[in-house]
Structure of Aminopeptidase N:
Amino acid sequence: MRADDDRTVYLEDYRPTDFVLETVELIFELGENLTTVGSEMRFYRRGGADQSAPLVLDGDSLALSGLALDGKPLLPERYEQKHDKLIIHDLPTDEPFTLTVKTRIKPAENTQLLGLYRTNGIYSTQCEAEGFRRISYFYDRPDVLAVYTVTIIADKATSPLLLSNGNLVEQKELEDGRHMAKWHDPFPKPAYLFALVAGDLGMIEDKFTTMSRRDVTLRLFVEHGKEGRAGYAMNSLKRAMKWDEERFGREYDLDIFMIVAVSDFNMGAMENKGLNIFNDRLILADPETATDDDYGRIEAVVAHEYFHNWTGNRITCRDWFQLSLKEGLTVYREHEFSADQRSRSVIRVEEVKFLRAHQFPEDSGPLAHPVRPTQYLEIDNFYTTTVYEKGSEVSRMIATILGQDNFRKGLDLYFERHDGGAVTIEDYLKCFEDATGRDLSHFALWYHQAGTPEITASSEYDEKVGRLSLTLSQSTPSTPGQKEKKPLHIPLRTGFIGPNGDDMEPSSVSGGERRDDVLHLTKEHQTFVFEGLGARPAVSLNRDFSAPVKIEYDLPKEDLVRIAQHESDLVARWDAVNTLALNTLAAATRACQSGETIPVDPALTDTLTGFAEDDALEPAFKALALTLPSELDIGRRIGQDIDPDAIHLARNTVRDAVAKAGHKAFSALSVSPAEDAPFSADAESAGKRALRNIALSYLAAANGDATPAKEAYDRATNMTDRIAALRILAHQFTGAAETKAALEDYRERFAREPLVLDKWFTTQATIAGPDALERVQNLMSDTAFDIGNPNRVRALVGAFASSNPSGFNRPDGAAYSFFANFILTSDKRNPTLTARLMTAMRSFSALEKTRREKALIELERIASHDDLSRNLRDIIDRMLK
Ligand code: PHE
Ligand code: ZN
């Protein structure tokens, strides 16, 4: 039974609209306190639709100031406004008609940053997912594609720049110091891809010549004075455009492509047609202010939004349940781009780390949902790592199952068949089936079944005949709304590493399909039998992390070490070291809790020292291998009754032991390069910096002396080195005079750079231990902190709640209650941001009892308020179910 006031949306309720919208002409008269929006929409009744059906348009917080049909004002009895909808009756049955709607909105009061808002003198829009209805009454759904013409009128002095989607078709001066610009976008699009920007911004310009020799103008707009920091984003854009032509045959389709960087933005960036809008942290970079990670993120996100032009815009989603159709696929394309631009294995390891740190916990907690959900209360809350990153993994698995060439064939067919359409995940899958003849019906379950599959493996080797039997069993835990799970089709890349470290190739395989090194696990229990293996191999399962699963495999330690040292697949090597480290760290935590001395496995310290000394490995990979799992990783590994203080102590103890054992190697690695080497952001240079900085942190641990880190801070000529040194000081020498001095220097040095100060906030918000809360509270009164800016909030409060396990989970619960108060305040301003922040506590039930109970009290206190936003209500109710 569905209650009347239940606003839940169900996939099964999907129906096309009764009317077809062909064109829309919008006229904006911009004023920060009052903006008027005129909308002229050309409709006709859909063939076969109910001939008496009214036209029902979406709205949200709108003031209606005019309504006309074919130029004549509509009488009040012809329409009604109900539950934010505008309902119009008695519309023509055969003839097309024009509906004119006028609304008034207040951009300066829009603190939700959804719809049209004005901050720092800039008007900008955010319409995905349902923001357009805060601008005008509209069919605000992705399957309604119309051609837009947009006129913007504004004061010329304060808004010299007037931008929207498509091509500029007219521009002129008006009286009273105003001016106008008119834009036309020839490509039909859904409302969520509409964008408008007005204000006074600086610009850099470039051009790109496409594969069919068309010139495209590229413009990137940033705050005046920041033009010098936009070059890397522009360069990334050009590389992305080229790559999409070469790798996927996709060419850009308008004469101009624009990106605007804004400082107040809820998410990372938005792919509006021809006019991407970015959070400025994902555009601005120069060596003094951006880290190598920032450069990598900028490159990836600029490419991601650009790639949406085909996967998202030219072909869009039929409804929001299909969100992963565009997001999962575009993340996959983004990952492939990064892999081609940088080091494939390093990029893959970073993806695996991210997936395990964010998606796996989501998938095993109260907010778990399938890649393609079947219901939602608030779509904003479904921009999740499951829809994005697990969605990407699903496309990656399709490529693994079919092979890259066949994947490309399927995608070519998808572009050909569905260009201009609003389609479903079934449509997407069908293209791969039709292009290759492979049946993907079993595989499709990955889209519908939530939860991370768990595989248990065991193997037996028969020395006499050289036969290895590998038994794999799979199961997927229950998730909210899905109790029973079926076995999935899981492609597992598998290697056999011989005693001398070389790959072994079996002469035959039975028990299931094996192509190249991919085992196709399709049943609940399956035994693969490999013949012709002359010695017992170490079995390397899930090479390259070919499937997003958890594997329980009781591998002898010497096998794990063999894989760590010799696997030809670097991702598997990294994973083996990581497993060795997690085993040691989990044992150390247990010892800590029972007051025993903390053991540190020499197999771990030896392996890590071996990595540190191995000059054949690329530095970026070495840096990843030498980085111990985080406290959060260890907590997830332990899984229940988590005691963050014990984990903190255990990790520091293991870190110190590694530092001592590898002292000599770390000393050698920490040496700085020649003074005058010019900065380069390329992946290789970044890898060297990463390696040097991890070595520095081990040395600091081994020597217990803050001086070298302080010297590194003072000597730093780029942000990567500076922030790395600052982190060592703040996290390993918290109260030291050197730390104080460096923190003050940083605050002073970047006093006028809020984005750069975010790193300073985060560094301090993540200092472990019980003093963290007070530190965070003090930082909230720093003049640079601004509760209205999502980046500031995430850098300080978000980092504290999600990345400081011992500090946030103080046993007395004081941080929970601080956080709950913050959530309640923030929800009044910005529900999207607040609901996302709230998810930091989604795994509270895995904590040990005292903390779990204290957390629950605060969560219930939040839930007890009856005026929560729908975003927050949705998250908190699911967390408490
Ligand atoms: N569609 C954007 C992206 O991934 C994300 C986004 C969603 C931005 C909703 C704003 C609002 O590329
Ligand atoms: Zn996206």
Notes: The pocket of phenylalanine (ligand 1) is lined by residues 126, 128-129, 267, 269-271, 304-305, 327, 383 (CB under 6 Å). The CA atoms of residues 801 and 841 lie 8 Å apart. The mean pLDDT is 97. The longest helix spans residues 570-593.
